[in-house]
Amino acid sequence: MNEKCVSVRFVDDIELCADKSGLGKIFEVINDGAQAYKDIIPDDCWHEPYMPFEELRKEIEAGIVFWGLEYDAELQGVMGIQDKGEVTLKDLRLGSELADKITDRDEWRKGQPAQMQVKREKLVEAVKGILARYE
Fold first, then answer.
1. Cβ neighbours of residue 113 under 8 Å, at least 6 residues apart?
2. Where are the alpha helices (DSSP H) in 9-104?
3. Is the pTM of this model over 0.70?
4. Dihedral sign, CA of 79, 9, 122, 128?
5. DSSP 3-state assignment of 66?
């Protein structure tokens, strides 16, 4: 089984995850990334896996399309987009770095420094801006 995203449309290093056989890898990346928020997410909302496989399938059936970032032929991150005109981008790396410094959940939710709302037409530009932080 091919666990990688198959490039249908290529925008720098971000590729559309169009091959349904790659769902296992998307599932892994989402749940590995969620571990950074384990101590931030309230206990009554946290479960493992954070996004069960069946929920991932339902999200895709509801119209969410996943894009992935590969580095050295390994899927490093994913973003799900359901075209509603505006999307939320989450910088999981920044979120993980900041998570150790946050002591108050309300403070974290109010500021959301690792999350931003972006108009659909500005998405690629915004993702490139996040990636540029780590070059």
1. 94, 98
2. 23-34, 53-61, 92-99
3. no
4. positive
5. strand
